Amino acid sequence: MGGKVIHIMKKMLFYGMAGEKMCFLHIILNALDLYAGGAEVKIIFEGASVRLVSVFEQEKNPLYLKAKEKGLIAGVCMVCSKTLNVYEANLTSGLPMLSDMSGHAGMRSYIDNGYSVVSI
């Protein structure tokens, strides 16, 4: 059969909740891998993971910096950043503070736009 191959652009949102560095690095690894394969990918730091932004910034983590450079990181939860006392540090990262869901980073707009969500 000589039919055309149709590629459907996959959209993935990684909604990181865990504050464990190794878990979040795997989120970034998977996001970069899917992006390299042609997927549209976004990462949100939510919950305890908001503490990792300054850690990744300070250590100049190459995976984090690559995802940031490629525009894969949608932003960081504003309320969780404030609650966990990392708001000022997270602001210096230059990442957007997200607050569309009662001050938290919501996923509804991504789902409405065809994204599949992976929450870890």
Summarize the structure.
The protein has helices at residues 21-36, 52-58, 62-69, 78-83, 87-91, 108-112, and strands spanning 11-16, 40-45, 73-77, 97-98, 116-119. The chain is an alpha/beta fold and 120 residues long.
Strand tally is 5
Level-1 CATH class name? Alpha Beta
Order of strands across the main sheet: 4-3-2-1-5
Superfamily (CATH H level) name: DsrEFH-like
β-sheet strand percentage: 15-25%
Please give the share of residues in helix: 25-40%
Number of individual domains: 1
The CATH architecture can be given as 3-Layer(aba) Sandwich
The name CATH uses for the topology is: Hypothetical Protein Ychn, Chain: A
Spans of 5+ residues with little confidence (pLDDT < 50)?
none
The N- to C-terminal Cα distance equals: 41 Å
The rough form would be described as: globular
Written description of the protein model:
By secondary structure, this protein is α/β, with parallel strands linked by helices. It has one domain (11-119): Hypothetical Protein Ychn, Chain: A, CATH 3.40.1260.10. Helices cover 39% and strands 19% of the residues. The chain has 6 helices and 5 strands. It has helices at 21-36, 52-58, 62-69, 78-83, 87-91, 108-112, and strands spanning 11-16, 40-45, 73-77, 97-98, 116-119. It has a 5-stranded parallel beta sheet. Strand 1, helix 1 (21-36) and strand 2 form a beta-alpha-beta unit. Helix 1 crosses helix 3 (62-69).
Layout of helices and strands, plus pairs?
Blueprint: E1 11-16, H1 21-36, E2 40-45, H2 52-58, H3 62-69, E3 73-77, H4 78-83, H5 87-91, E4 97-98, H6 108-112, E5 116-119
Parallel strand pairs: 1-2, 1-5, 2-3, 3-4
Helix pairs in contact: 1-3
